[in-house]
Every structure is written in C-alpha cells, then in structure tokens.
Amino acid sequence: MESLPQDELEPIKKQLLERRSALLNEIRDELKRSDEQRYIDLAGRVHDSGDEAVADLLVDLDIAIVGQHIQETRDIEEALRRMKEGGYGFCETCGEKIVLARLQTQPTALRCLACQDRYERSYAQQGRPKL
Predict the structure, then answer these.
(1) What is the pLDDT averaged over residues 76-102?
(2) Among 47, 53, 73, 75, which is least packed, fewest CB within 10 Å?
(3) Helical segments of the chain, H only
C-alpha cells in the first residue's frame, strides 16, 4: 500500500488542521455562550408554554450543533492519525486508493465513492424513527 505523495498530502493536512482549529474555537465559544445564557435564565423570561417550547428547542439545537462539531473533530483526528500511520487515502472497505479530488473536497473520507454509495444505501435507514 503506497501512501499519497507528500505534495498531495500536505495541502490536505493543512486543510484538516485549519478546520480542526476552527471547530475547537466554535465548540469553545458555543460552550461559553451556553454557560452565560443558561436554560433557566432563558426559561425564566418566557411568558407562555409556546415561548418555553421555543426556549427548549434553542437549547436542543445548541447541544446538537456542539455534538456535530465534536464528531467532525473526531473524524479529523482520525484522518490525521491515518496520515501519520500511512493508511490515509485508502478505502477502509475495499482497500483501493480514494481519488485525490474526493480527498480534497472531503478530507475525512473513509471510503471510495463506490463503497461509500453502497454503505449509504445499506445503512440509510439506521437511526431513523419508524412507525
């Protein structure tokens, strides 16, 4: 398994490091904001159950956004680990090289396009509520 040439890897690594830094700043800022504007303060200012529902929704959205940022940070850390160990740029399913254009647009990609498509079709319904 021959890893990506250094001249192709460096710009992607730089992109990952910059995104990680931006995400960590966003997470820090969001947590700081939520600490300053606690749910109790927000709920204490509402006047009816509709306002309270909106306050609940805003708190839930803030938590969901932080969760997404944390997951993206983990994905970036994993990509950086693969770079260090020499496995970056290879599909975890079939082992073939992932096209450079895909890595440039989705630097945390784990799979080639064909395997990703099959993966999404296989697992598309997981985690969705069913009646």
Answers:
(1) 95
(2) 47
(3) 6-36, 39-44, 49-85, 100-105, 113-123
Residue 109 contacts residue 16 (beta carbons within 8 Å) = no
Domains of the chain: which residue ranges? 6-123
User: What is the mean predicted confidence (pLDDT) over 7-16?
Assistant: 95
- In the CATH hierarchy, which fold is given to the domain comprising 6-123? Four Helix Bundle (Hemerythrin (Met), subunit A) (1.20.120)
Residue 53 is given by DSSP the state H
Angstrom distance (rounded) from CA 66 to CA 76: 15
Tokens of 49: 């159950």
Q: Are 61 and 53 in contact (CB under 8 A)?
A: no
- In the numeric block, the tokens 């850390």 are attached to 77
The Cα–Cα gap between 24 and 31 comes to: 11
Query: What would the mean pLDDT of 101-107 be, rounded to a whole number?
Result: 96
Q: What is the pTM of this model?
A: 0.74
Position 39 pLDDT exceeds 60: no
